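Posting this for the archive.
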Amino acid sequence: MPDYKYLIVGGGMAAEAAVHGIREVDRNGSIGLIGAERHPPYDRPPLSKGLWKGKPLKSVWRKSEGMGVTFHLGRRAKQVDPRNRRVTDDEGTVHAFGKLLLATGSSPRRLPFGAEQIIYYRTLDDYERLRALTGQGRRFAVIGGGFIGSEVAAALAMNGKETVLAFPDEGICGRVFPPDIATFLNEYYRKKGVDVLAGARVTGMESRQGQPILKVSQPPNWNEQEVAADGVVAGIGVQPNVELAQAAGLEVDNGIRVDASLRTSHPDIYAAGDVAGFHNPALDTWLRVEHEDNANTMGAMAGRAMAGEKVSYDHLPMFYSDLFDLGYEAVGEIDARLETVADWKDPFREGVIYYVRAGRVRGVLLWNVWEQVDAARRLIAEPGPFRAADLKGRLPA
C-alpha cells in the first residue's frame, strides 16, 4: 500500500501549487498525487486564451518535475476514510496518508441533450478536440455567454471561424457586468463577426449526416430555428466536486468548508481551489472562487499549512479575461445585481466600474486598466461609506 506523508487528490493548478507550498517548508516528505486526467498538471486559462493566439502548447505545462512527487494519473479517488487515513482509487489501490489535500475542482454542468457531441469546455483534451475540429470545420456554435462562452467564441472568431454564440441573458456576461457593458459586448461581438443570439434558449439538438443541428428559440415570438454547426461547445457553469468530502462526513456548503488555515472539519484534511468554500474577511462573507489566482494562492498556502506552517488565508482573489482586443481584471464581488458606479476614461474602452452595496465597495472591474488590482483590494477593505462622487477618479491610484 502506498503510504505518503502528504497525499493530494486532484491534478489541477491548486494541486500543483500545493506541491510547491509543501516543498517550501518540507523538502523531503513523501508526496503522492491522484489525478483524474491523464496529463500532468497544466495551466487552464491558455485553453481559451493564449493557445488560440499562437502560444505554443508546451507553454501550458506546470513545473512539477523534480519535486519528488509520485503521480497516479488517469485515476480517480473513489473513497476517503478519514479515521484510518486512507484513500481508495478506482483501480482499488489504497493510498495511506498523514495529511490529505482535496483539490478535486469542479465539473461542467451538462445539457439534457447532445450527449458526447457537445464539448463541455474545461480540459486540455477538450481544447485538443476543438482544435482538431477547427482544422476541418467552418462553422461553430457556442452555448453560454459567461466567462468560458465569451472567451471561446472570441477565440474561434479570431481564428477565422463562423461563430454563433447563444445564451439566455440579455447581454454577454450579463450576470456579472452592468447591463450597458453587457449589451455593448453584444454589438462588439457582432462587429467581430460573431452571430450573437441573446435571450436565446437552446432546447435540443439532433445530428444530420454527422453534423450537429441545434434547436434555438428567441424572444419575442420564440419560434424555433435551427443552427447547423461543425462543432458545438458549451460553457454553462460548473459544480464543485464535493462527493468525496460528503461521503467522508466533511462539512460541505457550496463547496468543502475550510477555516483560515484551509483545514476542513477534519484536522488532517485540507481543501483548496474551485472546490473549497472559505470566509473572506474583507467582504465578511463565504466565497468559493473558480479562477486561477485563487487556485494558485490557495493551493500554495494549503501546501505550506499541511507541512506545518501557520497560515491564514485572507487573500481576495482576482480574475481576468481577454475578449478580442479588450481585456479586464476584476476583484471582489462582480455581480450585476449590485449597484454600480462607472468611471470611464473612454466609454466601454477604458475605465473602472465599482460594485457597491450599502455604501461599501464590494468589487472592482478594471476595464482595460492595468496594475490596479492591489489598489482595488485596499479600497474593498475600507469600510466607507462611499458615495458615487467619492469613487470618481479613485482608481487608478
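Residues 115-234 form a domain with the FAD/NAD(P)-binding domain fold (CATH 3.50.50.60). The first helix runs from residue 13 to 25.
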